[in-house]
Here is the input.
Amino acid sequence: MELMYQSTRSEGTKVTASQAILKGLADDGGLFVPVSIPKLDVSLEDISKMTYQETAYEVMKLFFTDFTENELKTCIERAYDSKFDTKEIAPLVKKSDAYYLELFHGATIAFKDMALSILPHLLTTSAKKNNIKNEIVILTATSGDTGKAALAGFADVEGTSIIVFYPKNGVSKIQERQMVTQKGANTKVVGITGNFDDAQSGVKAMFNNKELAKVMDEHGYQFSSANSINIGRLVPQVVYYVYSYTRLLANGDIKAGEKVNFVVPTGNFGNILAAFYAKNMGVPVGKLICASNENKVLYDFFETGVYDRNREFILTSSPSMDILISSNLERLIFRIAGDDAKKTAEMMDALKTTGKYTITDEMKSKLADFTGGWASEEDTAKEIKRVFDETGYVMDTHTAVASSVYHTYKEKTNDDTKTIIASTASPYKFGTSVMSAIDKKYEGMDDFALIDELCKTSGVKIPNAVEEIRTAPVLHDTVCETKDMQKTVEKILGL
Here is the structure.
């Protein structure tokens, strides 16, 4: 049976998976959600004997029902290949009392590779299925990692071009260098003078601009998104939660049916929403622990039922979580509102006009799967040092936020459920913060000198993604004001 998708903001037309992937955002500004979350149709024990690629097929076939078996398997094979530096694609590593799910073994050493390796293939397949003749322009805002992963995924992919906006002073030096040295005739990178929320709002405004869409169509272009607002980004992320659970089964660490907790460092809410989808597919999950940094808008939401972005925006050492408007939360709001699109639209309108909304007590009661926690900059640095001193394992700042939140949660609750922490980036991406946390003597050292020190300290080989940008020339140096984002896109496309 075909699984259809609808907008979170209106009861309007249902679309197929390929149409939802192509559009990225619904016409009313809402996000596409499946009309129901499908249940796994093979047992977790059977999946425990499968490879990552085979697991991906078992999960994605249930969501992308208008893709043929051959189309979907081809997309998966092209995505999860030698671009990843480990055969398992997403290894699970046990350190002291937790399992770290390493999601950073792809081409750009961040978890975004897990979905952005496959999205270009899903998108070009969707375009063919729907007889699209326009060039697809991927328009993306990034807080650091999505940008590079999307650029790498779409570089020189026929029938597409990609424009990435990032906050000029809001990403790490390595993150910026990864983006501005990106090759590919169809790639463009633009720094903006605002923060990530400004970039994300600017991109959403262009998606919702009907006049701009008309002009683009006349010139043979149409927008799509590589941000986690695209369902083609979210579904591939569900896979690694199913996979990680079945690895514990395969290793005999848990018994069939035993619950696990997931801890996810969270900014835009897509990654932890994927874990929620995995639970709804049949993975036995105890708690979904949402870990925030000092921009703790999500922590406050889970505590109070009020989402309020009217607060200071703090630049932290975990920049991919420096976000005050968590776009994917809208999908959860829709769900706990009983799939009430009107109520969801009203809340999103309130967020846009007043910067806040409050959920009802009934909605709050449906959030029992989730709990929130947050870690300060000091907590984050201490956790990097603690885990390194105790185990020799070096983690990045985002993973450290999650690890710190987990240990605070455990102290508070005495919950000894086996726990998987999503390790979302390589420590090499944030060498300065990581090495300074391990030893103050590294403070003020050059980024690339620190990378060599990190290699000696961790015993982990420097990834190609870092080696290749040491000497790579800067190919993108455009910077614009937030208000000029649309003008910049028009200029790039020659509209």
Summary: The chain has a mean pLDDT of 94.
